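Sorry, explain these tokens?

___
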Amino acid sequence: MVDAPVLPAEPGRPDNRVGLGYLMVAVAATLFALNGVVSKVTLSSDMTSLELTQIRATGAAAGLLFFLLLFARRRLRVGRRELAFLVVFGVTGVAFVQWLYFVAIEHLPVGIALLIQFIAPLFIALFAWLVYHEHIRRRIWLALILCLTGLAVVVEVWSGLAFDTVGITAALGGSLALTTYVLMAERERRHRDPVSLSFYGFLFAALFWALVQPLWGFPWSTLGDSISLQGRFEEQSAPVWLLVGFVIVVGTMITFSLLTGALRHISATRASIVATLEPVLATVMAWFWLEETFGAAQLVGGAVVLAGIFIAQSAR
């Protein structure tokens, strides 16, 4: 769920199709997990993590704009006071979440990268307690202990870290960026619907990356290359444009629509808990497709971290 964190649902009459809501979140988590594997394969091309982030943000912004122009033009209106907030939201809450995630999966197994980024709910609860002075259940301290202990086991701190430090740093940075995204989204969600909020997030993320790297410098020719699908499917190949299209359409547009629709039937807290399926499914898919394997320490530590994430989700 790193790609499109769950936003609070709109207030309104409760919906009794709870099962449908859970199913939609589960399908979204599955597609997000698959998207992580596809993204890692895509990064084996000449396209860098920054370039993949740029084209994903640009493509998602264009797709969401097209949808809003067709069905909800009024939602595009922005007040002058809101504009600065949306710019910061797009840069810190969207651009860096995507980029740091791609950097992390370049250097780490997909499941490990997601597991580290998914400790964001712990940071969110702690921030809400320290800054917003919200009442947080005492179980948050148990969640903190479990997450820290589990991560220490996953990376095998006793042997000087079992994984690339760049990947671990990027994943932790992505977790903090994800925390910023959710906290800002919660604030703005009171005034703006999730579709237009995501559009402006992706729009300003795309504009930010366009300043960092102008679009005329983008390696468009790379999209025409064919690359190996790696791992179990190493002998098969696919064009880069097809993989990038999957990342934009399936890994962003469809998954976001499923999450948005699910919030009509279940609460954001319940949806977030179901979404913890993502690192588990990503680990299984990466094992099946990319043949990424883990030792006993990673499996045990991962289970402990997931327990901590689950408790952190319910502590706030």
